[in-house]
Amino acid sequence: MGLILGKITVETPKYEVVHSSADYEIRKYPPSVVAEVTYDPSQFKGDKDGGFSVLANYIGALGNPQNAKPEKIAMTAPVITKSPGSESEKIAMTAPVVTKGDKNMVTMQFLLPAMYKGAEEAPKPLDERVVIREEGERKYGVVKFGGVATDKVVEEKVDNLRKSLERDGHKVIGQFLLARYNPPWTIPAFRTNEVMIPVD
Question: Which of 80, 72, 58 is nearest to 130 (CA)?
């Protein structure tokens, strides 16, 4: 019942708020380890989130873990998505599931639990599409919002956040990420989403 009403019961990334305004927060995230998969959504019948099942299989969220140990890895939140067609710039990401777009290709990431301090500590994936790598410390301008994160809503949030960051003298250094903290069966009014833009 808690998941339907938006209760977040899984590990979420730690961060430090370095600046807070009425419009947004600037957060600093520590280094982390991610599992990622890059794919063309057409391989999943046009589903931008099609890589989710590949990563969920790796950690064992959908059954037996598809890794060399095999070791079940706890799910974390948020799921972070970068859709194809967004502005194409260099990016550094944190969070459980991240998706970055390059033309038609999408990269989705799960942030692994903080117990994994380096890529070599994470179990080796059996699926060669899954890559384990380390992300360094990074800063983001972040806006939180509820409801369904439709393309139109996200575009509006990104545009407003970018304008606010530039207005306040923050240098944007990459493309935006969409962080979704709840499963799809959560009642829309109780969902938590964030738009994240990397800043210098």
Answer: 58
5 located within any domain: no
pLDDT, tens digit, for every residue of 114-133?
999 999 999 999 999 999 99
**Environment class of 103 (CB within 10 Å of its CB; exposed 0-12, middle 13-18, buried 19+):** exposed
183 part of a folded domain: yes
Question: Measured between alpha carbons, how far is 198 from 137 in angstroms, rounded to an integer?
Answer: 11
**Are 130 and 54 spatial neighbours (Cβ–Cβ below 8 Å)?**
yes
| pLDDT reading at 103 higher than 80 | no
The count of domains in the chain is 1
| Residue 137 domain boundaries | 16-199
Query: Does any domain span residue 9?
Result: no
Distance between CA 33 and CA 133 in Å, rounded?
6
Nearest to 96 by CA among 108, 82, 84: 108
